[in-house]
């Protein structure tokens, strides 16, 4: 596995979105030997070398928290590498169908890149999509050293369909975006912090970008 470059001392910030999986992402990064701040302070986020946007729960609740913290414009203005994880990835696109208590209606997301989050179709499989599944990728920076069809851990019922910003794909019922990218913004639908060595490799690759 690649290691984080020790000569490149970086400021890594996890955006405090108010979601529940922040600690697990933080611990995964600390195991790689990097120092991590969790913050919703605009100046701290803007001065970071790398930014993580975590999230679990519903898009509506997460966007309400981000708006309440007045972080939308800050996140849209970032020019350093940003990685959205699970719901954090879904918040990066324009809209999400996960708009209400029953998952009906569209809500506006962060619009960091084009795209729409849709409810997954069951196609004879059980939802939510929970557990290990294989990922195929077309990227040698975020997925450096990770073989095709490596297993990652997923928990979700909504997804971004495959489209021009798809970096990696997974199939569960239908194919969907397992990772997306536009400019400095990256997102992964799976949980790298729960995906063993492959997840640690991906986090390392992102920190080393």
Automatic annotation (TrEMBL):
It is found in: Cytoplasm. The active site is at 86 (nucleophile), 191, 193. Pfam families: GATase (PF00117). It catalyses: 5-[(5-phospho-1-deoxy-D-ribulos-1-ylimino)methylamino]-1-(5-phospho-beta-D-ribosyl)imidazole-4-carboxamide + L-glutamine = D-erythro-1-(imidazol-4-yl)glycerol 3-phosphate + 5-amino-1-(5-phospho-beta-D-ribosyl)imidazole-4-carboxamide + L-glutamate + H(+); L-glutamine + H2O = L-glutamate + NH4(+). The keyword S-adenosyl-L-methionine does not apply. Residues 15-207 form the Glutamine amidotransferase domain. Transmembrane segments: none annotated. Its main location: cytoplasm. Its EC number is 4.3.2.10, 3.5.1.2. SUPFAM superfamilies: Class I glutamine amidotransferase-like. Keywords: Amino-acid biosynthesis, Cytoplasm, Glutamine amidotransferase, Histidine biosynthesis, Hydrolase, Lyase. InterPro entries: Class_I_gatase-like, GATASE, Imidazole-glycPsynth_HisH. PROSITE patterns: GATASE_TYPE_1. Pathway: Amino-acid biosynthesis; L-histidine biosynthesis; L-histidine from 5-phospho-alpha-D-ribose 1-diphosphate: step 5/9. HAMAP family: HisH. Heterodimer of HisH and HisF. IGPS catalyzes the conversion of PRFAR and glutamine to IGP, AICAR and glutamate. The HisH subunit catalyzes the hydrolysis of glutamine to glutamate and ammonia as part of the synthesis of IGP and AICAR. The resulting ammonia molecule is channeled to the active site of HisF. This is Imidazole glycerol phosphate synthase subunit HisH.
């Amino acid at each position: 596995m690649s290691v984080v470059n020790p000569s490149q001392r970086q400021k890594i910030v996890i955006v405090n979105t108010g979601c529940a999986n922040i600690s697990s992402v933080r611990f995964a990064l600390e195991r790689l030997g990097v120092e991590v701040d969790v913050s919703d302070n605009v100046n701290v986020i803007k001065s970071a070398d790398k930014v993580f946007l975590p999230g679990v729960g519903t898009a509506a609740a997460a966007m309400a928290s981000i708006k309440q913290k007045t972080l939308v414009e800050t996140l849209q203005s970032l020019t350093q590498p940003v990685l959205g994880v699970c719901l954090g990835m879904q918040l990066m696109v324009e809209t999400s169908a996960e708009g209400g208590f029953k998952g009906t209606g569209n809500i506006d997301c962060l619009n960091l890149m084009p795209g729409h989050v849709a409810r997954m179709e069951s196609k004879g499989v059980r939802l939510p999509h929970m557990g290990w599944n294989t990922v195929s990728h077309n990227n040698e920076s975020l997925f450096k050293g990770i073989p095709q069809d490596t297993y990652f851990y997923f928990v979700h019922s909504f997804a971004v369909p495959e489209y021009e910003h798809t970096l990696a794909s997974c199939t569960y019922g239908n194919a969907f975006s397992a990772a997306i990218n536009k400019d400095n913004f990256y997102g992964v639908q799976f949980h790298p912090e729960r995906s063993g060595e492959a997840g640690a490799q991906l986090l390392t690759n992102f920190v080393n970008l």
